[in-house]
Amino acid sequence: MPEDDLALRFREGMEAYSRGDWDAAVADFDPDVEWHVHGSLMPGATTYHGHEGVKQFWATWAEAIDGMVLEIEECRSVGPERVLAVTRAHGKGAGSGAPVESGRFAQLVDFRDGRAVRVRLYGDVAYALKELRLSSPLPRHAPPDR
Fold this sequence. Notes:
Helices cover 32% and strands 40% of the residues.
């Protein structure tokens, strides 16, 4: 599957999430997907497993923020079977009704055979960019660091 198609599929999944259609949002996720929440996003961050685990994570956020909508600023392929999405979220405080808006955060998504197998959610885009540099192979023409 072309890399641009993977980015589009992930974007469409997150748009389905914003509409409240969580089943459609996970449709292109592997049934054993790992959804890892980085410590930069929330204390006690953990990894959720499978479609139900991802929905459990989303339900946790829904308890705090009513009507959460994702605004995807950028969603693009950053390597073979890897997508980076830079996103903001907004909604209303579940108890107060006050407007709530997040800062920019990142989702780094690994695909296999056209299905998302791992999503890493970072509270700061810089962490995702650092991860990309660490996990990407060196260009063939660049000598290794010494």
